[in-house]
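User: Can you predict the 3D structure for this chain?
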Amino acid sequence: MSAGIVFSQMLIIFALMLIGLFLCKKGIVSRESSKDLSGIVVNICSPMQLIMSVLNHSDTGTDRSVLIDFFVFSILAYIILIVFGYIVNYILQIPPKCRGDYHLMTIFGNCGFIGIPVAQALLGQESLIYVAVFNLCYNLFMYTYGLWIITSDVEGAPVKDQIRQFVNPGTVACVVTILIFWFRIQVPEQLQSLCSYAGQPATFLALVVIGISLSEMNLSELITDRTMFLFTIVRFVLFPIIFVSVLKLFIEDALIRGTMALMIAVPVGNMPAMMRAQYGQDDTLTAKGAVVTTVFSVITITITCLFV
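Assistant: Here is the predicted structure, written as structure tokens:
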């Protein structure tokens, strides 16, 4: 990828975030409204955007075996991230009470909320079928290993609730997207238009919501939190560079390699913080990690793309 093109696209993405920041600071939208907008993006727009990505390409000649290979690589990527999570805790000498949070932040990037619009902007619509596969793996690990970390200190955490949470619009959309692609399903034109209209606002709304969340962040914390700053460098600069360098030895296709690299390079997701809050735990650190790494993602993602 061209460094100039990547950086300019990331600046556009960051500018869209600033729109959300501006709207919130001026009182045009409230901070409380971000929850409602997030619900629309997560449950409607992003799922429709994923499905829309294959509706006009269901007759593509892409080999199905490539999709299987990408699924396997995605599973391996998460296993590597799990192991690397322990390494991060050791290298940065994270206090025991914070190790679970840093482990979660290492593993679970924002491959849906940010990953989808960034992949579409940098790699095009064709990359979203692979993003769907990666997000399916994300949900698989988030609602198994991730919930195990979160609920390890919660007595009697109901397994049924975990299973119920796994079946969500994002997971369903990933499965539907893969099925349409795999079986070359022809979708009626009316449904294609519906998915198109519902999916188009996803990128703008997702980035505006992130901008609203940035308005709640004390900028001085970006500078004073040394551990978070070091974590950002280790996880979102050094690790992606090493990962992509190794990836080149096994994957020749630039689109597949670029998509995998982006999914690894996206900043900390908001799901760990949301689940911490759901189980009545302190979500301050994971929420802060999501905001800090998102601010620096303009630089960290650009650096990663230089090595793809």
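The first helix runs from residue 3 to 25. The two ends are 7 Å apart (CA to CA).
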